[in-house]
Amino acid sequence: MARNASLSGFPEWLPQERLVELHVLDTLRRTFELHGFSSIETRAVETVGQLLRKGEIDKEVYRLSRLQEEEPGAGADAKSTSDAKADAALALHFDLTVPFARYVVENAGYLAFPFRRYQIQKVWRGERPQDGRSREFTQADIDVVADGELPFRYDVELALVIVEALSALPIPAFKLRVNNRRLAEGFYRGIGLADTAGVLRSIDKLDKIGAEAVADLLKTELGATDSQARAALALASIRTEDTTFVEQVRALGVTNELLEQGLSELEQVVSAAASRAPGSVVADLSIARGLDYYTGTVYETVLVGHENLGSICSGGRYESLATKGNRSFPGVGLSIGVTRLVSRIVGQQLAVASRSVPTAVLISLADDNSWPQAQDVAAALRGRGIATEVAAKAEKFGKQIKYADRRGIPFVWFTAEDGSHQVKDIRSGDQSAADPASWTPPAEDLQPSVVVAPGAP
Amino acid sequence: MARNASLSGFPEWLPQERLVELHVLDTLRRTFELHGFSSIETRAVETVGQLLRKGEIDKEVYRLSRLQEEEPGAGADAKSTSDAKADAALALHFDLTVPFARYVVENAGYLAFPFRRYQIQKVWRGERPQDGRSREFTQADIDVVADGELPFRYDVELALVIVEALSALPIPAFKLRVNNRRLAEGFYRGIGLADTAGVLRSIDKLDKIGAEAVADLLKTELGATDSQARAALALASIRTEDTTFVEQVRALGVTNELLEQGLSELEQVVSAAASRAPGSVVADLSIARGLDYYTGTVYETVLVGHENLGSICSGGRYESLATKGNRSFPGVGLSIGVTRLVSRIVGQQLAVASRSVPTAVLISLADDNSWPQAQDVAAALRGRGIATEVAAKAEKFGKQIKYADRRGIPFVWFTAEDGSHQVKDIRSGDQSAADPASWTPPAEDLQPSVVVAPGAP
């Protein structure tokens, strides 16, 4: 970024940078809608009780209070005990999954299942800001959620949708890394390690502390034997862009029913991706997604050459997103870190907007009284989708052209006293007669476009 | 609304209602961009000191604290005194003007002035929720701000832009009521009432307490004589859709330089509006916009037949939006209450979405193994902008059609074993041969559209 945010962790964009963000958001929306996902938004606040239900680290949560109020908890109904009050107190959501689960339960009677939704909103976490991590950031989520049972095929479909969405963005190549909890858990059980959650937590640290330290953890904390630790690490080292991971796992000689189910599921995802989107999906058996409540497929995504940014898109399958009485709502979904992506695009100028304003044409004024006629010309152009401004004062033409140049407006329009019109491309200096009823700028000048920078890696 | 929000004051929309909101937001964005306004967003939080700088009622403000923190003020740099700490504490913004002013000052070196921006974001106020007033709501603001001097013509332009934007929405007829602070202040001074702010505050109560009570206020609280009170009320009773208000004011026999300037300014706005957008703008000399910091033109908007909703779009001219050293940034702008409008549209079904999902076509499955071929058909359709879903399981065709029907998807696609394709309009039952490479639904079925309900007032 050229500038620092005036409040650390709360990035803001200049108009030209915002065009890059808008392009990313529009592209995601379009892809999601083409795949039949409906837009929803949820309120920015949840009750503290709702947010902490799944045991997330509560340190990250921003709680609200009314400035003039002694007791926090504005907006929620007062309850009798102070515990209940604390639960009902309001806080900003830290992701879009918890609010979506509440929304599904509250509106189950009004939704057609399997319900496909996308949700693009800001979330807040009171974490220490660093490169790729803000306190306020935008997420773009897609999920499919069923009432009762959700066919596995959706795990395959969502991988394909997200690959299509990310491929349409002005970003470097990416790898969607896929694993399967059943595969991993079945394997650990098959080698005699019963605390599968504990093993996953240790394996999740591979990138940070390395294989040897993970082996130590497995042995000291989980009582694994040397050969069990070696087997767990061998599984985590498997990485293939096709379905050959299946043979590699089988070669480790472990048999377990859950492992077989996981292998078959992961094979379906990778096989479909290898044929429909070759090179973008990897079976990566080290992916654990430590704290999350996934039960099957898990996804993570890195930008090639920008691995230090962390995952730019993660998700998975959860057997029970929410429950309502005896109904259970399983789902599968992914979340794109829009702000993380846009910060990197803008910060390293991986892509730039072709101009900083929507305006294609400035209608100049020959004299102050011609403003109404200038508005007529502008209205004619806008009627054909051409973004147009009218000069506010009849300054010298040179000054009006300079104004357009300063704002990055490519064309200036002149109307002579005799009512004839001319339009000038102020970049080339080319000027020619033009008719307000028919003139159109070249397609590439109609709207600002976002283009991958030529030098971008 | 069909349902009540689960948290009072925090409305949430069902997918079909959200389509109405999206249509409103897309329409506003398109209009603003056609007029050369650039999109920006500001962070949701400001420091408490910044928010209270203009003396807004602090009761409305939601302050943030980290859940695990004793001291509020997360995110801001610690300062030495506790007053400074309270100032630096973070709170949610309650409008988009205060954040915009900060943004302009912080980024003045990067912006081309006059800077034209639109900003569509949620804001939060801890007020008592009621019809037309939420605690979380979306505003859509446009402003033009200059570095130094902003020609009056922008006051005229912004009225025209906002009339065009509102006219494009699926809402009943509206009236943009315009007045001018200079006109009112000059008049009050001309009749010998020096406390013009006091008079404005009293006149602002006209709608609520009536003319007689306002006259009493003017006399008892401001020491006005009977004839001064009558003159002030006579001015406030003037309302014309053309520039005849000028004669009516002159007929009251008051002369004052500021009054003349205000008359001339208001005349320019109303004259342009009467010729370019007849019937949508009214000179209404009772509009005071009590607490706001406007210095010239003031705007307010009511929906005809929905006056009880309050103003759906307000704004005005401020001589100094912000200052930076000896630089001053005057501006003029308006803010549309999107949530207020959408709540009314949805609540009274003034307009509805033609279907609840983006999907136009469901590709059915003859057998489970044909899913990859179905994805090929879907990809071909999506390539031409047709939103398409693929069935997840090869259930009986009747069940697959029922699924489409339940979700409101108009077309179901069938691929026979011999590779031939048929598409069925499940509303009419019409079925015919189709080619994935060329078939297109009728234009009105391509995307969900938002249409004004036939019975809407």
TrEMBL record, chains A, B:
Source species of the chain: Arthrobacter terrae
The protein, known as: Histidine--tRNA ligase
Example of a GO MF term: histidine-tRNA ligase activity
GO biological process: histidyl-tRNA aminoacylation
CDD domains the UniProt entry points to: HisRS-like_core
Keywords: Aminoacyl-tRNA synthetase, ATP-binding, Cytoplasm, Ligase, Nucleotide-binding, Protein biosynthesis
Main enzyme class: ligase
Alphabetized InterPro entries for the sequence: aa-tRNA-synth_II (IPR006195), aa-tRNA-synth_II/BPL/LPL (IPR045864), Anticodon-bd (IPR004154), Anticodon-bd_dom_sf (IPR036621), His-tRNA-ligase (IPR015807), HisRS-like_core (IPR041715), HisRS/HisZ (IPR004516)
